[in-house]
Amino acid sequence: MHDLLFILFSLLIVVFGVLVVAGKNPVNSAMFLVPLMICVGGLFVLLGAFFLAAIQILVYAGAVMVVFLFIIMLLDMDVEKGRRINSFAAVAGIGSSGATLGLLILALTRSDLGAAGGGESTLQGETIPLGKLLFTDYVLPFEILSVLLLVAMVGVILLSKKKLQ
Questions:
Q1: Would you write out the chain's pLDDT as a tens digit for each of its 165 residues?
Q2: Are 23 and 79 in contact (CB under 8 A)?
Q3: CA–CA gap between residue 30 and residue 17 (Å, rounded)
Q4: Alpha helix segments (H runs only) across the chain
């Protein structure tokens, strides 16, 4: 049953990912990200990382998607502009997809695929050690990231503002 659910979630992630990229309307593409994030949360549940699954669904499928839709609405994207195919972007996308496929094939053909890289993790998926580590050793990068996100949000609002004449 575990393997069947993994295959189901993985296939759904691929299908929704294709729908995100192939969508002509940016709002529809952003909305296809919601079931994609929920399926990723399902994979986290299968791995036993229940905290990460809850964060994936609550934060990414909820709050981040609201921000994405807010930005799309503020930018007032022209749908006709997005329909033209940029040849550089197409070549770069095909190249990066080929490189990712090559790395995947290389990882699957390695003989030590089952080895987990050595030692055991010290966190073991518990939230208390994760919180202590985040707010003691990594408090400066955490605060820098929050300021960076605030500056990005203000920048989007300023860029999307219409000039009054």
A1: 888 999 999 999 999 999 988 887 888 888 888 899 999 999 999 988 888 888 888 888 888 888 787 777 777 665 555 556 677 777 888 888 888 888 888 877 875 544 445 455 554 666 777 788 888 888 888 888 888 888 887 877 777 666 554
A2: no
A3: 10
A4: 2-22, 26-46, 50-55, 65-75, 79-82, 87-109, 127-136, 139-160
Q: Looking at this protein, which amino acid is placed at residue 29?
A: S
CB 12 within 8 A of CB 31: no
pTM of the full predicted structure? Answer: 0.56
The radius of gyration of the chain's CA atoms, rounded to the nearest angstrom, is 20
Burial of 56 (0-12, 13-18, 19+ CB in 10 A): buried
